[in-house]
Amino acid sequence: MYNSLGPTAWPPRSPDLTPMDYFLWGTVKSDVYSYAATTQEDMRITPAMFDNVRHSFIRKIISCIAQNGQHFEQLLH
């Protein structure tokens, strides 16, 4: 993995808690395939969606910490 300073150490099998990965791409894909959006307003992310992301993100962080950074996704369902 790289950032603006060069290579960054990233532990193998470390959890990726990035909201873009677990929320945005799934939401966009769902919206694109569920109905034909014709305006930018149709694709708007609402404040309620951000609240859901925030609550989900906090829950994932707590689960990750409880599992000492190991796999925890199975605990979320």
Detailed description of the structure:
The protein is mainly alpha-helical. It has one domain. The protein is 47% helix and 5% strand. Strand 1 (2-3) and strand 2 (6-7) form a beta hairpin. It is extended, with a radius of gyration of 16 Å. GO terms for molecular function: nucleic acid binding. InterPro entries: RNaseH_sf.
Question: What's this entry about, in short?
Answer:
It contains 2 helices and 2 strands; from the N terminus they run ββαα. It has 77 residues and is mainly alpha-helical. The mean pLDDT is 76.
Instruction: Report the order of strands and helices.
Output: EEHH
Mean pLDDT over the residues: 76
The total domain count is 1
* Strand order, sheet with most strands: 1-2
Rounded to the nearest angstrom, the distance between the terminal CA atoms is 29 Å
Fraction of residues in β-strands: 5-15%
Q: Main sheet?
A: 2 strands, antiparallel
How many helical elements? 2
Shape descriptor reads extended
From the alpha carbons, calculate the radius of gyration and give it in angstroms: 16 Å
Low-confidence stretches: none
GO molecular function: nucleic acid binding
InterPro entries: RNaseH_sf (IPR036397)
